[in-house]
Amino acid sequence: MELIVARPEGLYCPPGDFYIDPWRPVDRAVITHAHGDHARRGNRHYLAATPGAGILRARLGEDIDLQPLPYGTPLEHHGVTLSFHPAGHVLGSAQVRLAYRGEVWVASGDYKVGPDGTCEAFEPVRCHTFISESTFGLPIYRWQDQACIFADIDAWWRANAAAGRPSVLFAYAFGKAQRILHGIDASIGPVLVHGAVEPLNQVYRAAGVRLPETLPATATSKGDPLLRQALVLAPPSAGGSTWMRRFGDYSDAFASGWMLLRGARRRRGVDRGFVLSDHADWPGLLWAIEQSGAERVMVTHGQVNVLVRYLTERGLDARAFQTEYGEEDDSLEPTN
Ligand SMILES: [Zn+2]
Ligand SMILES: [Zn+2]
What we know:
It comes from Pseudomonas soli. The chain is an alpha/beta fold.
């Protein structure tokens, strides 16, 4: 029995008659997390893990018909028992476990196996079939400990502050920006944020995640002495816009898993690249797949073929699964 199949609308559970992260509007949508390529507008009913409800409402509208379900709480629908389990990717991100007539499938959504302090840590879930993302599914992708990366960011910021120039750090507005805020040493100087970042900070704070005080960047203007020591967090789309003019002579950087690739930093045209990802690296993917105990693995997002070949050589039944994920966060290599 296939508990999840690919349909034009998205990943579909035939016995349960619902979709997981559909990319076209459907009646019942189970949402793994609120990144734009997984959570879209227009569905009639939404089901999501409780810690992600605030973000979903902030992004899709307060009026969506959303049923929150706490992690680990089973919900039965047409004989299918569904539960959410932490995916460690962003606040509220969940793996979806489906059990039906003794068969267990898990759809991972996006996941990261290392804990980061801004969301519940990834929890391995045993299953027969595991649908895994594979954004960074190549052996070259190995992340450093996040404490080292934050130390690098702090050192860059400190050096810029000593030289009296603002440090502009580009990062995705939901997830990455809050992780950076949580990890940096806010005693170095004031922290300014773009208008796309602050509403998400507020949802994180309301969920009990400790973030330093942030000021709207628009409260400053060119020549403001505050800017000389400031760290500025902005979404990638702000780069090159008129919004940047107030910073005068600044240093800029980009935080993303793709910064491991020299070419990606050059194409971005930034001074520094910090390799910080909210996705599992190659050892993380292999660890999660092993921990699931699955005999069958379906691979979505990114470097599908390399991971499928690797798992097949190790005796697993592995195959590619066609999806339309990967238009937000680290899922797409930054260009422009
Ligand atoms: Zn994501
Ligand atoms: Zn994704």
